[in-house]
Amino acid sequence: MFGSTWTPGAAPALLTDLRTGLALTRTELGLATARFYRAIGEPAPSTRIAIEAKHDLVDVIAILSCLRYGLTSIPVDPLLGPRAVAHIMDQTAPVVAILADTRTKVAQACVDMKFDPGSTDADENLMFSGSSLAMLLYTSGTTGKPKGVMFSRQQISFIVETLAGVLEYCPLTKVHSRLPLTFDYGIFQIFLAAIFDQELQLAHRLTPMESQATLVREPDESVVLPIVPRMGSALIAAAKRRREFATSVALVTSTGERLASSIADELQIVYPRARIQPMYGLTECMRVSVGPPFRGTRPDSRAVGRALPGTQVRVCDDGGRELPRGEVGEIRIRGPHVSSGYWSEEGPPDGACLGHGGGRELRSGDLGFQMLDGELCVIGRRQDGVIKHRGHRVSLHEVDAVAGELSNFGDAASIANSDRIHVFYTGPISPDKAEEHLLSALGPLYAPIIAHHLPELPVNARGKLDRAMLEHLADDSKACDNNA
């Protein structure tokens, strides 16, 4: 995309696409953001810009351009189904949508437009100051539809600067990121690079084997590897197949779900120089805590460190009363980075954000406790329908909502079992067709979906859906598949 016009200079790269080999310095990235802004018509501040986030240079340029010029970016996951995308477009009504063919035209415009070398287009300050709305980051929720989490520029600045300090990021460090740019920790790798002069290596489109080869190639480098645990498992397998371990990796940060001790042990084998730091967070506040770095003996895998500076964590009972240390309850978070709420005319869903002491308090929906020394331990989520599925946060409520809207499904309910989403229904449609229709509507983010026809859904003594029975039926079907 930029190969024919950018002249490599002596300055280090700030952004590299490992699939294409294209790299931009800070000055070049400043020029590119200006070109993007002009290509979309120089919209007024606070204009909403939807961007299909395919994890390439266009995404990064578009998101940083929105930050620089006071626009509101709306990254859209390409794995979302048409129903979810339509909901996001209808709810936000973006003035500009960088989707499909529009991406190609904008990318070309970023290259072709000419600038006066003495102009301010190459301004290296990529961060727009102020409290205006910077980003709407959509995540699955309990309403059956994606919800847009609102972040201001001040909130982004706070969490980026806080994380960089806690992680002891240094300039010229390389960050090898396979995380999608619609995932909160994935998109924040862009901001960390833009503010703290780290080279962001976009590796999302690489296979685990290609990614591992890149990490091995330069053994004297200092590389940060942000992962989710399932991604870590894939890289471990690739390292074992290559029989090459990467001494370039100095830090592995893990988030998204609990980092099992077995995976942590393997990471220390394939990345022998690396310290490992587990994290805990939610989209609505990005990060809550960062565990202390460790090598060697793995501490309690439930432990995720103390609250970030400027952040307060309370563990509460169902009535909102704070519990003594050691007792299990719901984790609640306060701090400057807690989202302003959700983009909706109806306001945030009930119970998502509550006032406490004159500030915003986020109800995480996660269960945990605080140790005597203040370190936070996370046990798991409440049964609210939001789950981690193959590293992504998805909503079973959305599965149920889609099944309820499709013809011939009858009564339907879904559960998560292992790495599969099981949908039970009573209508006349065949299981194969049911799976096909659901995946078409929901998108590959929810795959695999296993459909089961039942004469009627099981209920308990109170007349409510018997989810324990559905779990049992799902286990039976898995056993039958394994014995087939």
UniProtKB/TrEMBL annotation:
<dbReference type="InterPro" id="IPR050237">
    <property type="entry name" value="ATP-dep_AMP-bd_enzyme"/>
</dbReference>
<feature type="domain" description="AMP-dependent synthetase/ligase">
    <location>
        <begin position="45"/>
        <end position="343"/>
    </location>
</feature>
<dbReference type="InterPro" id="IPR020845">
    <property type="entry name" value="AMP-binding_CS"/>
</dbReference>
<dbReference type="InterPro" id="IPR042099">
    <property type="entry name" value="ANL_N_sf"/>
</dbReference>
<protein>
    <submittedName>
        <fullName>Surfactin synthase subunit 1</fullName>
    </submittedName>
</protein>
<dbReference type="InterPro" id="IPR045851">
    <property type="entry name" value="AMP-bd_C_sf"/>
</dbReference>
<dbReference type="Pfam" id="PF00501">
    <property type="entry name" value="AMP-binding"/>
</dbReference>
<dbReference type="InterPro" id="IPR000873">
    <property type="entry name" value="AMP-dep_synth/lig_dom"/>
</dbReference>
